[in-house]
Amino acid sequence: MHYFMLTVRLGFSNWNANDRERAYELWGNPEVTRFITATGRMEPPEIVERLGQEIDMQVRFGVQYWPLFFRERTRFVGCCGLRPYDLSKGIHELGVHLLPKFWGRGYAREACARVIRHAFDDMGCPSLFAGHNPRNHASARLLLDLGFVHTHDELYLPTGLEHPSYLLSSDDHYRGV
Fold first, then answer.
1. Which residues touch 155 (CB under 8 Å, ≥6 apart)?
2. Residue 108 belongs to what domain range?
3. How many folded domains does the chain comprise?
4. Terminal CA-to-CA distance of the chain, rounded, Å?
5. CATH number, domain containing residue 120
6. What is the pLDDT of residues 13-53, one digit of tens each?
7. 120-138: per-residue pLDDT in tens?
8. Burial code of 18-47, b = ≥16 C-beta within 10 A, e = fewer?
9. Which of 6, 92, 137, 144 has its CA 20 to 30 A from that of 106?
10. ∠ CA(92), CA(93), CA(95), 5° rounding?
């Protein structure tokens, strides 16, 4: 397995057309999708479409919610990465989706911290945006722990809900604010 970015425990790869099984494992899991879709589920055609969107995002913008693996066992963990949010200001959105069996072990924080460093150091992003379903309290804690600041609530069309929304500036991140 080729990783383009690493943490202590995780490796980041790129989605490709051969990753349908992993996409079904992740986005076909209602525990994962309960916070990211209005129905709480993604049907197989939606999963295939999501995989295609991730692949296209990498081609067009050089980012995606990259698949994550344990470095030593190449076991699939989930995905974490970026997508364009407000390109006129150079702002990307941070996101993470992990398989439930890996929740609560610090993998999301580890992966997000690495993506944040990549966005600020390698891509020169001035700020990052993140949002979460209002019922996803674990994501709220994660974002605050990473230094994000709640700025507003924003309608997220896939859920039809106002999602708490946050920003993290490069300056604040490196000042430790």
1. 161, 162, 163
2. 5-175
3. 1
4. 37
5. 3.40.630.30
6. 999 999 999 999 999 999 999 999 999 999 999 999 999 99
7. 999 999 999 999 999 999 9
8. ebeebbeebbbbeebbebbbeeeebeeebb
9. 92
10. 140
